[in-house]
Amino acid sequence: MIENILFLIFLILLIHYVIFLYKIYVGLSKLTNKVSEKIPEEFVSIIVPFRNEEKNILKTYTSLTAQNYPQEKYEIIFVNDSSDDNSLELLRNLSKRENVGVYSVPDDYSLNAHKKRAIRFGIEKSKGEIIVTTDADCMHSKDWLISLVKFMDAKTGFISGPVEFNSDSTLFIRMQRLEFAGLVITGAGLIGSDNPIICNAANIAYRKKAFESVGGFTYQMSLSSGDDELLMQKIHLDTDYQIKFALDKKAIVSTEANPTLKDFYHQRKRWASKGLFYGDSFLLIKLVLIFLFYLSLLVQPILGFLISAKYFLTFIFSFLIKLSAEYLVLKKGTSLLFDFKILKPFLITEILQVPYILVSGFMGMFGNLVWKDRKIKR
């Protein structure tokens, strides 16, 4: 009796996960790059929060100031968030263009919000009707800005753009590159299926009007994260604006992968922690079911050793279905955005994905987080 119940539970979790992947696949098919090539009439403000980025900040400055976009139609606002290295001085010593501003967040300004407080401070200093955010360790092609904001029409309130890791020098980095591409593809497919859940603040754009209409970050300023997907979800749920994904390879922002396993772990733990604050209860239930599916992939072989060899068969069946379905989604998304060579470490990445999802997901829900040498308490 108990054995049958367990088999049923494992089957339900598998079916739910396959349906989730199917929605992503269908959503990818619905995405379009057929948009106006005209520059939006609205002025654009690019907000770049930074903390301790002396190794990257000048490269980012160069790529942003070299945009194939009329200088009088956009501004770049760098916002220093308590850096204790030389990054602020490097920017201040530049002969800056007229459309570039450099600010520092006051010490007593929304203390626990960290990166989000820098973005809000930047928005307060901005004059654009369209806000674009990116990170200070990113590189942008000359056509990045125009390729991103061309998706902004009168009905659109938020645009999620693609991000990729720009190196494949080691197996660890190649695995990160594939896993990260999978997250971008997942976010794109969910937007295409009208279920926007995840995006990346390194490459997003939104109307200041939409930002203000949902209260900005007012309900999130006590959180250390949420400047991207929590805002996107709120605009989707609380306004009539559309959410779009910038399906254009020229809109890709590139950045470096995590150099160490420790850095990777802390990053993914921070990302996982945001799921606790999703405002949609039904969405939370779906994410819990996905987590339980991954947990079942660990439990089934254990039960195979302890109870019955039948659980090895259910594990093999579940894992092969997962493998096949995820490969189809990745292949579809890669054909739209990335180079197919990122799929090379697919099998080993799939094998290691299960324990990584379980550990980072669990630790993201409990314990403290680390970002830019800061220990962040809940």
Q: How big is the Rg?
A: 21 Å
| Estimated structural class | alpha/beta
Order of strands in the sheet with most strands: 3-2-1-4-8-6-9
Shape: globular
Could you please say which CATH topology of one domain applies here?
Spore Coat Polysaccharide Biosynthesis Protein SpsA, Chain A
How much helix, percentage-wise, in residues? 40-55%
Secondary-structure topology with pairs:
Layout (H helix, E strand, L loop, with lengths): L1 H29 L13 E7 L6 H9 L8 E7 L6 H6 L7 E5 L10 H11 L4 E4 L4 E3 L3 H6 L6 E5 L2 E3 L5 H22 L11 E4 H6 L15 H10 L3 E4 L7 E3 L5 H13 L7 H26 L3 H28 L8 H20 L3 E3 L2 E3 L2
Parallel strand pairs: 1-2, 1-4, 2-3, 6-9, 7-10
Antiparallel strand pairs: 4-8, 5-10, 6-8, 11-12
How would you concisely characterize the structure shown here?
The chain has 378 residues and is of the alpha/beta class.
What does this structure look like?
By secondary structure, the protein is α/β, with parallel strands linked by helices. The chain has a domain at 33-170 and 191-257: Spore Coat Polysaccharide Biosynthesis Protein SpsA, Chain A. It has 12 helices and 12 strands. The protein has a 7-stranded mixed sheet, sandwiched between helices. Strands 5-10-7 form a 3-stranded mixed sheet. Strand 1 (44-50), helix 2 (57-65) and strand 2 form a beta-alpha-beta unit. Helix 1 crosses helix 10, helix 6 packs across helix 12 (346-365) and helix 10 packs across helix 12. The chain is globular. The two termini are 42 Å apart. The mean pLDDT is 89.
